[in-house]
């Protein structure tokens, strides 16, 4: 965390001049604190080009080990993708230790459903919504993708156009915590509890079906071993089930944090990969 904050602060300074060509709407409340779901009040930001109309939409959840982060740190991502004709939604979600993973998933689902109901007024197409996230946020995006039946359908019955996972953690949280809950994995129990049934319920790989919408996984070659192992087990299950439309790209020499900070540079190849996937789906 100490390494990423300076880079993201620099990104904010670098991207502040880009606002003039964009509409940036901040702190939109998408979950009210008196919600029956037992969630705290949660806000999101929307970035859209001026005169946007029926553009694809990316709903992004940040990383931070399920315990830290805030949407304001990712202005650079909203700015740069909006300048490439993508409407971007950056959503906060409840964090541990005050909240556990079930509340995080509920909140993430609420953010996507809010987007489906409201994004047209910002120039986004509610029938072309992609979910995305980095690290823990990639985990939340993956849960939405594999549990798409929990989303509200849009007018034509379509729910998601696809998902883009950036170095996602937790794809096999059950297996990881089974091996490490008494050691390095203990730090994640505030979010995932000490109940193995919860670990499995919130491990994306156990909910894969042939109805999965297109998925793109972008991973750093030098990411954490646990992330690589989780992705490999996830893809093994993809193959076992005969699911075809899941792509993986490995970025040479990239570590975990640079998988998100590379979005600071407008010439980065990651934009081509993300935009190509959006265009194709």
Automatic annotation (TrEMBL):
BD-FAE-like domain boundaries: 44-222
Superkingdom of this protein's organism: Bacteria
Alphabetized UniProt keyword annotations: Hydrolase, Signal
UniProt GO MF annotations: hydrolase activity
One Pfam family of this chain: BD-FAE
Signal peptide feature range: 1-20
PANTHER family: AB HYDROLASE SUPERFAMILY PROTEIN C4A8.06C
Name the record gives this protein: Acetyl esterase/lipase
Source organism of this protein record: Algoriphagus yeomjeoni
């Amino acid at each position: 965390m100490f390494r990423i904050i300076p880079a993201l602060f620099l990104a904010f300074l670098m991207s502040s001049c880009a606002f003039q060509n964009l509409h940036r709407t901040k702190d939109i409340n998408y979950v009210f604190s008196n919600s029956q779901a037992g969630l705290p009040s949660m806000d999101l930001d929307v970035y859209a080009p001026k005169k946007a109309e029926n553009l694809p939409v990316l709903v992004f959840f940040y990383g931070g080990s399920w315990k830290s982060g805030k949407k304001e740190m990712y202005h650079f991502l909203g700015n740069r993708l909006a300048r490439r004709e993508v409407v971007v939604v950056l959503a906060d979600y409840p964090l541990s230790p005050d909240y556990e993973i079930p509340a995080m998933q509920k909140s993430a689902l609420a953010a996507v459903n809010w987007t489906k109901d409201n994004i047209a007024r910002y120039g986004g197409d509610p029938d072309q919504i992609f979910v995305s996230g980095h690290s823990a946020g990639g985990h939340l995006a993956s849960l939405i993708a594999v549990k798409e039946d929990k989303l509200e359908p849009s007018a034509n019955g379509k729910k998601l156009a696809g998902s883009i996972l950036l170095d996602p953690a937790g794809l096999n949280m059950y297996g990881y915590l089974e091996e490490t809950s008494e050691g390095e994995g203990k730090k994640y129990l505030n979010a995932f509890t000490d109940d193995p049934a919860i670990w499995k319920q919130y491990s994306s790989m156990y909910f894969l079906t042939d109805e999965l919408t297109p998925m793109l996984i972008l991973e750093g070659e030098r990411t954490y071993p646990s992330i690589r192992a989780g992705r490999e087990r996830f893809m093994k299950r993809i193959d076992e089930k005969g699911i075809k439309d899941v792509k993986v790209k490995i970025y040479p020499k990239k570590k975990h944090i640079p998988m998100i900070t590379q979005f600071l540079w407008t010439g980065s190849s990651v934009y081509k990969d993300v935009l190509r996937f959006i265009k194709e789906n």
